[in-house]
Amino acid sequence: MNHWSFVTAAYSVALLATAGLLAWSYLSMRKAESAAEKLKRPE
Amino acid sequence: MHRFANPARFLKIARPATVWLFVIGLILAVAGVIGGLTFSSPDYLQGETVRIMYVHVPAAWLGMGGWAGIAAASIAQLVWRHPLATVAGRALAPAGATFAAICLLTGSIWGRPTWGTWWEWDGRLTSMLILFFLYLGYIALASAEKERGGEGRIAALFGLVGAVNLPIIHYSVLWWRTLHQGQSIGVEGSSIDPSILWPLPLSTLGFTCLFGAAVLMRMRAELAEAKVEARMRRAAAE
To answer: Which of B40, B49, B174, B220 is the most core-located residue (most Cβ within 10 A)?
Structure first.
């Protein structure tokens, strides 16, 4: 393997994990805030 | 700090701060990554693999910074019983664990062409792995306490005790001079050539802002979940 294979692998790990963390945080926030909003509204 | 003890006041600041941190973080991280991959010079010894530094160093800093944040939140919880401290600790843990894992994985990938091995039980590598396991332990403890309706005091104590590992990680390269290189960036300057160093502050600041955005989103999720839970309990009692 040449040097660029290692560089590509390291950047893929870092960027995918960061994107995954942000996506999970955003989706869990949206889910929780919309559930709280639904309870606030009168039925 | 006590001014933000009121969750409503905190949310008023957290909502726009989440967006700003995400946008600024994304711009800086992309600039740092592009600069690191294309415009910076390769190292005369390590060649192109030195470019792994632009994701590995921010991840190491955020893995350690996340636990420092947990320790600060633990003090705020145990001493002042700050209502947002438990929420902050629980929100910091997954983000810190993610960056500690990124640090370990990118370090291992960097180690193969540089040292000729994916892993060595070196002081720095081992203490960083311990930090990752501490994060997993904290997440498990905090979740168990949340489920039992506890105040999170056991997790806070664990967060404080775990902070002992931070100076061990920092000084590991001085105490056990085995495989990992010594400190190359300090308060007084850096031993890295400026032609290689310049994208590092960009990527570090960018990933730090993205880390902040993820923590704020988790805090907002925790607060909304607590609100729903409180309403459901009230409704059940009526």
So the answer is: B220
